[in-house]
From TrEMBL:
The chain crosses the membrane at residues 48-69, 81-104, 124-150, 177-193, 199-220. This is CDP-alcohol phosphatidyltransferase. Gene3D superfamilies: 1.20.120.1760. The keyword Transcription does not apply. GO terms for biological process: phospholipid biosynthetic process. GO terms for cellular component: membrane. GO terms for molecular function: phosphotransferase activity, for other substituted phosphate groups. The keyword RNA-binding does not apply. It comes from Pseudofrankia inefficax (strain DSM 45817 / CECT 9037 / DDB 130130 / EuI1c). Keywords: Membrane, Transferase, Transmembrane, Transmembrane helix.
Length: 227
């Protein structure tokens, strides 16, 4: 007997459910990039949902996958190219756990918490990869502190009733992932410049996290003044 496939909702139903889990944000009113990304995640998550993949398992794999980037990041030569590909793959996979949960109607508070923890684990591994690539340790620690403070502030604001989407800052996780991937790929293309490339990529992560925190704080201040 073949494997039983679970019926999967249509794309429009998925987008409506996604909107409900993201504070009522309507993808139709967002930019073309948002709509295309959601369409891509639907296409990639659909087979996983049809096969009955547990969302928690997808989350766990997405969190652990960046660990495989550490060795090639430290190896030098062209190996950081592989590290960049692994980080990119982990970021794509990370976007699928929520999509699988929606498609399988398995969205839960526990899943939300697990996904948040997994994201922070992956964030830490990305910065460790940049440190192994050649970034100064103090710079990697500063970037970690800034991005964790940004995410903590957003989480606390959400607990206080501030919408989950709230404000899209320059320091969002996709931006940080892109900077990490670009840094790793650039170091693989230019092995002789791996240390300065790693430092620039890490400094860029620090910069966008700090600016993002400022943007979020400014919006929160305006919202709280109206209450």
């Amino acid at each position: 007997m073949g494997r039983v496939r679970t019926p999967v909702p249509a794309r429009d139903s998925y987008l409506r459910a996604w909107s409900v889990t993201h504070g009522g944000y309507d993808p139709a009113t967002g930019g073309a990039l948002v709509r295309r990304w959601l369409g891509l995640t639907y296409l990639l998550a659909r087979p996983l949902a049809a096969l009955g993949a547990p969302p928690a398992a997808v989350t766990a794999v997405a969190a652990a996958l960046p660990a495989l980037a550490l060795a090639p990041a430290a190896a030098g030569g062209r190996w950081p190219l592989l590290a960049g590909v692994i980080v990119l793959a982990s970021a794509v996979l990370d976007s699928l756990d929520g999509a699988v949960a929606i498609l399988r109607d398995r969205v839960s508070p526990a899943g939300f918490v697990l996904d948040s923890v997994a994201d922070r684990v992956a964030d830490a591994l990305y910065l460790i990869a940049l440190w192994l690539l050649g970034a100064p340790g103090w710079l990697a620690v500063a970037a970690a502190a800034a991005l964790f403070l940004l995410e903590y502030t957003r989480a606390r604001a959400g607990n206080a009733g501030f919408g989950e989407i709230g404000v899209v800052t320059v320091g969002e996780r996709p931006t940080r992932v892109i900077l990490t991937v670009v840094g790793l790929l650039a170091a693989g293309v230019l092995p002789g410049l791996r240390e300065p490339v790693a430092a620039v990529a890490t400094a860029a992560v620090l910069a966008v996290a700090v600016v993002g925190l400022g943007q979020l704080a400014a919006v929160l201040r305006r919202v709280l003044r109206r209450r």
